User: Fold this.
Amino acid sequence: MMVVMSTSPEPVNPWTWQDQFGFSQALTVQPPSRWVFCAGQTSVDPDGNVLNPGDIAAQLTQSLDNLETVLDQAGTSLAHVVRLNYYTTEVDGLLGAWHILTERLGAAGCRPTSTLLGVARLAFPDLLLEIEATAFVP
Assistant:
């Protein structure tokens, strides 16, 4: 008997309301060869300097760029992300730029589980957003 391992997460969505936000209620993944737990990624340059102060859409784009850089270095991609946590000091602003996220994740075939949290402050005062990810390497 041959066991076939899936390299794609399988969504568990008892409802459909989450579809407009581009996330899944749960995902099941067959045992991957390796898990990747990413630290929160923000809008910073390679030296850790904050980029795009006051512009949450630009910070979201840069944070996703930085996340993809980390994932690539770890041997995986957005397509294999199963969990994203968003921390923001500007919930309404982030929701206003959410289309950037859904377009980017949709292009990668990614519908992760996720949590959006409003926080009082992030590590550096000019940061408006931090994205934490969990992925696997197929």
In short: The beta strands are 10-12, 26-28, 34-37, 81-88, 113-118, 129-137. Residues 1-5 have pLDDT under 50 and may be disordered. The helical segments are 56-73, 91-96, 98-108.
